Amino acid sequence: MRDRIVIANWKMNGSREANRQWVKNFLAQPVKLACRTVVCAPFIHLPELVEACRGSSIEVGAEDVNENVSGAFTGEVSAAMLAEFGLSCAIVGHSERRRLYGETDNRVAMKAVALVRNGLKPIVCVGETLEERERGDTPAVILRQLNAVLSVIRPSDLGAVAYEPVWAIGTGRSADPETAQAVHACIRQRLVQANAAEGRLVPILYGGSVTPDNAAGLFRQPDIDGALVGGASLNASSFYRIGEALCEH
Ligand code: PGA
């Protein structure tokens, strides 16, 4: 069986007090979720968050990592630094990083390698822009992004692949379940082609305007194993309800 996972991507949000409240509210829910739950937060909040979540069902991850081992990379954080603080995973290749900070497929692949070398699982984001979708390029774009990573690590090294159509992120316009499933099936096929046994076990998450209201429809699809949630994850009970929807399907 594949892991089913909900991952919160807080982006550049939160504060020490807000984070403490979030963890308290999430853990105050009466029923513990039967799926894995991960919170990815800004670097500076990670040590406190790891402490706050110790012994609980919440795993903590980073939103990014630098691909180099150490040295003159002002402002950057290495995979070894993340490992030392007990993180389980990090997001790589988020479309905001690709678009705003010029991250290439190759750099995303190197980041994934750096994580794996340090015992962390990469959550690899892939996704097409609206323009690419309208041109009919969705499968080609997704496969190009995925192939870069699969050329340097094995499917079993992956924490998850997250399909996040760029046009659905933060827009309130989620992909409909069938549209998302078609891309997830294409990702699954590629993972299985790389290694049949390992490829079947990689969770494929959907991300892009997931809310407690649209989550169940997405999770009914055979290759949607969870979600990477931005906006709706800032509220602990909304995020919990998305997790609940996952556990019910
Ligand atoms: P969103 O963001 O849920 O706010 O659309 C998802 C993401 O960027 O991971």
What does this protein structure show overall?
With 249 residues, the protein is α/β, with parallel strands linked by helices. Helix content is 41%, strand content 15%. It contains 11 helices and 8 strands. It has helices at 16-27, 46-53, 79-84, 95-100, 105-117, 130-134, 138-150, 177-194, 196-199, 215-219, 236-248, and strands at 5-9, 36-41, 58-62, 89-92, 121-126, 160-163, 204-207, 226-229. The chain has an 8-stranded parallel β-barrel with strand order 1-2-3-4-5-6-7-8, surrounded by 5 helices. Helix 7 (138-150) runs parallel beside helix 8 (177-194). The chain is globular, with a radius of gyration of 17 Å. The mean pLDDT is 97. It binds 2-phosphoglycolic acid.
Bound molecules: 2-phosphoglycolic acid
Mean pLDDT rating: 97
Strand content: 15-25%
What topology, given as strand order, has the largest sheet?
1-2-3-4-5-6-7-8
- In this structure, how is the largest beta sheet organized? 8 strands, parallel, barrel
- Low-pLDDT runs: none
Number of helices: 11
Oligomer: single chain
Label the structural class: alpha/beta
End-to-end separation in angstroms reads: 14 Å
Task: Report the C-alpha radius of gyration, rounded.
Answer: 17 Å
Name the helix and strand elements from N-terminus to C-terminus, one letter apiece.
EHEHEHEHHEHHEHHEHEH
* Beta-strand segment tally: 8
Residue share in helix = 40-55%
Structural shape: globular
List the helices and strands and how they pair.
Blueprint lengths: L4 E5 L6 H12 L8 E6 L4 H8 L4 E5 L16 H6 L4 E4 L2 H6 L4 H13 L3 E6 L3 H5 L3 H13 L9 E4 L13 H18 L1 H4 L4 E4 L7 H5 L6 E4 L6 H13 L1
Parallel strand pairs: 1-2, 1-8, 2-3, 3-4, 4-5, 5-6, 6-7, 7-8
The structure holds 2-phosphoglycolic acid.
